[in-house]
Amino acid sequence: MTKSILLVGVGGQGTILASKILTTGLMQEGYDVKMSEIHGMSQRGGSVSSQVRYGEKVESPVIEIGGADILVSFEKMEALRWLKYLKPEGKIVVNDCRMDSMPIIGGKADYPEGIVEELKSKVPTTVIDADGEADKLGNTKVANIILLGALVKKMGLEDIDWKKIISENVKEKFIDLNIKAFNIGLNLA
Fold first, then answer.
1. Where are the domains of the chain?
2. What is the mean pLDDT of each run of 10 residues along the chain (189 residues)?
3. Strand 3-10 and strand 68-73: pairing?
4. pTM reported for the whole predicted model
5. How many Cβ atoms sit within 10 Å of the Cβ of residue 44?
6. What is 3-188's CATH number?
7. Closest to 8 (Cα-Cα) out of 43, 44, 42, 33
8. pLDDT at residue number 46
9. Dihedral, CA atoms, 70, 73, 76, 81, nearest 10 degrees?
10. How far apart (Å, rounded) are the C-alpha atoms in residues 42 and 28?
């Protein structure tokens, strides 16, 4: 049975690195894995999405509307934007983080209120202050790895050697920090 994971965020949040680590771990575990990325205007704080599908045999990397088992959102408005891609029985892991888009910064749109409450009213939602937890570790750039840890826990993929995979995919001086971040995510989920 194929599982579909949708990771969404804003440019610069590390969505693609988290997807790469996830994909590597799933492949090393022997799954057939397909991944597709959409960068959009990621250099300017635009939407970024990564679709990861895994199972015994995966035909397509594309997750259709209503096809994702889990949605991991690095920014809460992105969770709302991508909600239609979640299966009716799907789950959300959302970073309680607000990043204003260009229309909001420019005064052409308002940031919606009550996003987390709306998500919780529709699907099982795990809210994590990944940015706050990363800040406690002294580096906000590891919020993505905290969210990856939470995703791994929610998907029941803890048996994979994530420590090794993280070590192979981040700069040497940041290995310990990223492993700590990953473990925080596991514990928060």
1. 3-188
2. 94 90 96 84 70 95 95 95 96 93 83 94 96 96 97 95 96 96 96
3. parallel
4. 0.93
5. 11
6. 3.40.920.10
7. 42
8. 74
9. -70
10. 29
